[in-house]
Input
Amino acid sequence: MCSTDKFVISQSFDNEFVITIKQQGSTLPMLLTADDTFEAKLFKLDTNTEAPIDIVVSKGDSADYVEGKLYLTISKEDASTLAVDRGSKADRYYLLPTYRLAIDSHTTNNGNFIAKIDTVYVDR
Output
């Protein structure tokens, strides 16, 4: 388990992220159903163009439905094609965000919406 406030994709490994979709206006997880569909895409921050990678989205099993959990998987091969941006040497080469993530969601309990992560970092 990793505790961080940054969404970081590593180019060195296959990446699996667990995201909890919350009920609108609440901190409680949204109840997912078998009919719910989700599609995730990455967009470059500077050009707003879609990154040509495959992000696999799955809902897990029925226990995960109750907890509103989505699993996003990005392969090492796809991650290696993403741009890495860093700050200057004087600032210890800190990571700069290069992408944003949008999850197009079609749900029974909350209708259609787009979940967003506005800053996505990529590291080697």
Q: What stands out?
A: The chain has a mean pLDDT of 92. Residues 62-67 form the longest helix (6 residues).
